[in-house]
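Attaching the record inline, Q. Sequence:
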Amino acid sequence: MALHRRFTWLALAGLVPVVLWPGAWTIAATLGVLLALAGLDVALAASPRAVVVERSIPRSVRLGEPATAHLYLRNTARRRMRGSVRDGWQPSAGATGTRFALDLPAGERRGFAIGLLPVRRGDLAVHHTTVRSTGPLGLAARQSTHASAGTLRVLPPFHAKRHLPSKLQRLRELDGRAAIQVRGAGTEFDSLRDYVRGDDVRSIDWRATARRQNVVVRTWRPERDRRVVIVLDTSRTSAARIADEPRLDTGIEASLLLAVLAERGGDRVDFLAYDRRPRARVESASKGVLLTQLVESMAPLSPELVEADFSGLPAQVRAISTHRSLLVLLTALDSGAVEEGLLPILPALTAQHVVVIAAVRDPELDARSRDVSDAAAVYRAAAAARALQEREALKAQLRAVGAEVVDAPPQELPPLLADTYIRLKATGRL
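Structure, as predicted:
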């Protein structure tokens, strides 16, 4: 039972006879009248348990975009139901208008629209709806909470999509070249030409040289249908917020841009979210459905408060592709985690694949390293400079074992990673 404000005013009015005629009988009589009126009001109110609750929720929405959910109530009681209803959305759903006045005749159905503006990626749930049925006197109400579960999947916003047209244009220019000289194996044969100083002797075609009585070399063009394996680190380091965005979300943006670009470039793309075990996986899909599968698998991802176990990564990559591939690992350049976990297994990866390590750089470090406005700022600048120096030393170690390193602030990481992919493709390393 719930009491309304009108009951409070009636109780205050009941103090008048208690003050004028003080005594136990007066108090008992006043309380008796109040309780009797409240009990009568509750008895005359329609049962809130007789309400059937249904809801309609969009299957998914992108983060930052509005959506509308609908709540439907059907009165199966014999009495008209007056009161209120409240829908129990979690705060991060950004629900507006979750409280409604209720006037529902017997046997009828009403619908209510609830505006949603999610502020967090993932699966946002609503579990219950509370119905309050008020009596005809407006003093008290009967209340019941109905289980009415529903889920709205909030997809990554993919703001980096704005870079896609310019990157695709560069890929088209790359594909439009007549012949691109590259070194090494693993690319598609294009044509033969005469040897010039500076050419790799490994590209000499000895049979053609014998036929022509002149040194001839093969030229190559970048292959299509290569494998691109994107691994997103979901360990504890991905929970850090950089520039008011979780490191994991920045990695998702960079992964989406690279995956769509590589697919449009004719390559096969696989995605793996990993810390100590796989959290999500998307295999090479048919053309046109990769982006849909990626955002669906990335939406519920959240940082796991565990240390990354990179020792199991080579086996995970072998399960995806046994051929030479572009392996992109989006992780944090944390000295402890990288030196103890990633560096020991990196030579085995670089021996078989082209490895790119992509990390988010905190722009606050650069800003603090330049601020020497007072004594405290000088100490902060020294600490920031030392952190940057250690970061550069770690990047040098990664490059020494054959890995490419992309280190950039959150807004710059997706396009720079895409540029690295295009550069590797242009030089024939894919």
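Residues 184-221 form one domain. The chain has a mean pLDDT of 88.

More tomorrow.
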